[in-house]
Amino acid sequence: MGRSYEDRILRVLDYIHDNPAGDLSLDTLADVAAMSRFHWHRVFRALTGETCGQSVRRIRLHRAAVALVAEASPLEEVGASVGYPNRESFSRAFTAAYGQSPAAFRAAGRHLPAPARPPQQEFSMYDVLQRAEPARRLIGLAHTGPYIEIDRTFTQVSAICAARNLWPEVRSMIGVYFDMPGTRPDAELRSFAGVEYLGAEFPEGMQAQDLPAGKAAVLTYKGPYTGLAAAYDSLFGGWLPGSGEEPADRPCYEIYLNDPRTTAPEDLLTEICLPLR
User: Fold this and answer.
1) How many C-beta atoms lie closer than 10 Å to residue 198's C-beta?
2) CA dist 144 to 44, 133, 141, 190, Å?
3) pLDDT tens by residue, 229-273
4) How confident is the model at residue 215 (pLDDT cuts 50, 70, 90)?
């Protein structure tokens, strides 16, 4: 089944090459890959070493570099042919990638090496199991901003639970992550800091988030939260392609098994849950 993910990557790369001036948004490329938009970007980055946006930019600008040397078309037409709507945006992007403006590159009359791709990533190995996850009702607060700063929102949730004596009706603390870092500015990333709630009355001022029951891949990570990104890369780039499984069209969530206030960072335990079809 790993071949299936390889085929998807190749299909998307072919699509980018064939449609440099077209709609190459993340949602469009996820559709080309026939994969959930929640998880496509993580798979792509893990297997190629680039985000979708980086690949699109690299391929577009390489096509532009070839056209600048091989053709006499005006700079505006070259830029438009690879998806840049005006000369200014094309010039900025090309200069950032190639170290000289499109006009200077054309005047030199030679190809510079295309911007280098990152080396293929080596993944740390983590144990991953599949299990049936129960339906969960979460209460908590929405968080917008860098994921590493969600602890501030979790602190607010904890304070509310303590002030209202909700802890007897609460189980695990759970974070739900709706966006893949790199698909939008860090300041706009959406997540939810919650606790699994067993009570009957909904607490005023809190928000609800339901997690449906279903099969999930669960990676258990031990260590500081700053290392979670590498664990995600291992899950999506190491385990998933060879698993024979398909991600469901639902976001990942994290279950925090111990308390960072009383646990050393190297001993923190986090379950990363990837919903599966």
Assistant:
1) 12
2) 24, 26, 10, 5
3) 889 999 999 999 999 999 999 999 999 999 887 888 889 999 999
4) very high
The CA distance from 59 to 62, in Å, is 5
223 with 265: CB under 8 angstroms? yes
Structure tokens at 56: 């699109």
Tokens of 8: 């998807």
- 58, two tokens: 């690299």
Q: State the virtual CA torsion across 197, 199, 201, 206 in degrees, nearest 10.
A: -20
Q: How many CA atoms lie within 13 A of 151 on its CB side?
A: 9
Q: Are 35 and 247 in contact (CB under 8 A)?
A: yes
DSSP string, the chain: -HHHHHHHHHHHHHHHHH-TTS---HHHHHHHHTS-HHHHHHHHHHHHSS-HHHHHHHHHHHHHHHHHHH----HHHHHHHTT-SSHHHHHHHHHHHHSS-HHHHHHHTSPPPPPPPPPPPPPPP--EEEEEEPPEEEEEEEEES-GGGTHHHHHHHHHHHHHTT-GGGEEEEEEEE-S-TTSS-GGG-EEEEEEEE--SSPPTT-EEEEE--EEEEEEEEES-GGGHHHHHHHIIIIIGGGTT--B-SS-EEEEE-S-TTTS-GGG-EEEEEEEB-
The rounded mean pLDDT for the chain is: 89
For residue 22, what pLDDT is reported?
Answer: 94
Nearest one of 177, 197, 186 to 272, comparing CA atoms: 177
Query: What pLDDT is attached to residue 41?
Result: 87
What are residue 128's DSSP bridge partners? Answer: 219
User: What tokens appear for 164 in the block?
Assistant: 């209202």
Q: State both tokens at 40.
A: 């496509």
Which tokens is 142 given?
Answer: 């929405």
